[in-house]
Amino acid sequence: MVRTRELLIDVARQLFARQGVAATTMNDIAEASGKGRRTIYTYFKNKNEIYWAVVEAESKHLYARLEGLTNRDLPPEEKLLNYINIRLEAVKEAVVRNGTLRAEFFRDIWKVEKARRSIDLREVALLRSILSEGVEQGVFHIPNVTATASVLHYALRGLDVPYIRNNFSESGIDRSRLKDYILDFIRNKTIEIWTKGTRRMSCPCIMKKRVMKLLEGKVAVITGAARGIGKAIALKFASEGADIAFTDLVIDENGKATEKEIAAFGVRAKGYASNAANFEEAHKVVEEIVKDFGRIDVLVNNAGITRDGLMMRMTEQQWDMVLTVNLKSAFNFIHAVTPIMMKQKCGSIINMASVVGVSGNAGQCNYSASKAGMIGLAKSIAKELGSRGVRANAIAPGFIITDMTAALSDEVKAEWAKQIPLRRGGTPEDVANVATFLASDLSSYVTGQVIHCCGGMNM
Known about the structure:
Blueprint: H1 2-19, H2 26-33, H3 37-43, H4 47-70, H5 76-98, H6 101-107, H7 109-115, H8 117-136, H9 145-157, H10 160-165, H11 175-195, H12 204-207, E1 219-223, H13 228-239, E2 243-248, H14 253-263, E3 269-273, H15 279-293, E4 298-301, H16 316-344, E5 347-352, H17 356-359, H18 365-385, E6 390-397, H19 403-406, H20 410-418, H21 428-439, E7 450-453
Parallel strand pairs: 1-2, 1-4, 2-3, 4-5, 5-6, 6-7
Helix pairs in contact: 1-2, 1-4, 4-5, 4-8, 5-8, 5-11, 8-9, 13-14, 13-21, 15-16, 16-18
């Protein structure tokens, strides 16, 4: 029954966002949900009740993210800045996800405030716990923690409507930079005042400007990441603040070394031995990751192999192996993370394709087909899950210098370079930079796209 109610609320949210509350009828919701009018009236007396349930669900979604942060083992001042960052990002996500629904929020803002009252009290409690932790550790000097938590919460809440309406543009403030201004103020003014006179006054993380990292607070899952491009992506994501869960067929000494390299950035990291091409194993490892990390924000489908050969000489085994490892593994992991990201109402899926998946290549019909499939898969998922706040894109690397290509002769490498306008092979780090863009909120309006990372090899 709970799932049916959640389904009705989410369907109503999508209809409200697309065509407005006034233009949406109970029949519309019944038809879109496939549940019928009788089922709807079992849970809601009228459309207004569904509308308030939507408002409450959006608030609970925000609270769940904030609660997850509060329970993390972080220094109080860092936890506070992350709290504010996540709160502002959630407002931005709500704007993108809910379309015309935000106009209804403005017209009924006082009713919305009433619907959110219970969540407000819980958010104040979260802030109070962060501030109390800081006081106990001697980081903050706050005479009245309860009052300060309440004032800070409602100050942040007061930014919601001006932020959505972009009122700050009248003062020449770019909304994309607003978050930075607010965090700077909290960091340089509020925290400085709270820490004045405490033994932590000289702490560099308080006194110096701290730049929020692109992936801070996110959890990324990367398949086939013990080495090569996958490892480069994991390290880059970690350097931008993401917690990393990565998979490979076995987590041997090399995998353990990769785990340590990732953890050296001060993030959580864990390698999981799993055959990505196996449906059951993929689902099992995703369940383990959620249990260990609490959520999944980014999925990078990177696992892949080559078994090259001309069509006349290619065996069925060569074809099946490449299609299974490269394409089926992506399906397996997307299938496993879809309900998680849908529930979170946010997520970024990145499929590692290839330029040969776009243009083909002689002697690589199996590999080209698998990578073309990765592109089609990303585009289809983008259309299916876009309304739930989940994005899906593909990266098409060109000639990238890895262990796989290092075995080629210098003559072959030189011939490849001649075909590339930038006259060099790419590096795993080049690909990792593109993946970081797609994983971060910088690409919040990018989905269903194929980004070439090939030095102009394929235009």
